[in-house]
Amino acid sequence: MTTLTKRRDRQARAIRLGPRSWLALALVSTVGVAGFGWPFLAPPTSTLNAHAQDAPWLFAGLLVLLVAVVAATISESGLGPKAVAMLGVLAATGAALRPIGAGTAGLEPMFFLMVLSGRVLGPGFGFVLGSVTMFASALLTGGVGPWLPFQMLAMGWFTMGAGFLPGADHLRGRPEVWILAVYGFLAAFAYGTVMNMAGWPFMSALASNISFSPDASLPTNLARFVAYCLATSLGWDMGRALVTLALTLTLGTPVLKALRRATRRAAFEAPVTFKNTPE
Fold this sequence. Notes:
Blueprint: H1 3-9, H2 19-41, H3 55-62, H4 65-77, H5 81-97, H6 110-141, H7 148-163, H8 174-199, H9 218-232, H10 234-266
Helix pairs in contact: 2-3, 2-4, 2-8, 4-6, 5-6, 6-7, 6-8, 6-10, 7-8, 8-10
């Protein structure tokens, strides 16, 4: 294989995360894990459980730091105008796709686009894209609320994860599409589960047998959470997972080729050179 071919096969990265961006991302992810999982992390005697109705709002406020992570990522990476343009186009497309399946059994086609974009453009671009797309779609659909920071972080994780899948520089064809399809299928369930964790504590006031109980033990609350997921979101998550799987298998190859072609033409990582011209 020639050097030129190797360079073409190696995927460009629109955003290269530096040390400060990784540190900020780790900080917000740590806060996010605490924000999603505090009902299982805090013991029954914890003072946090005494504020079960306030804790989700507290963590939602803390997760506004996600905006700072995106800003730090963009500023440190020196995001060029071509990458900004691609980010805008993909985020707008994803935001436009989300309302298509709103209220229809989890038929959300935007997830497959996030998977393929994260794969081609890398984890840094994927995290920014997932977060910005969810924010834009919330503005488009009027879905702004305390759940939005959780959605932005979860979608950022979802899209970033696709960029970490193996074989980004050499795996192509149906094997790559199948890897992305399986990842999208599983990640769609994971997204639904973590978002259930964000909303589940709000049900404690209902005092049902599937709501969060601050006084209950960890095994009891785990059983309640599983029952909550099965009763409220399993069908929606299954629809999202199947749509992501089907769209990736049917449209994955042409969309991947289009994204890679656009990335090559944008030449994100090509050094800027100046040629001497005769006077």
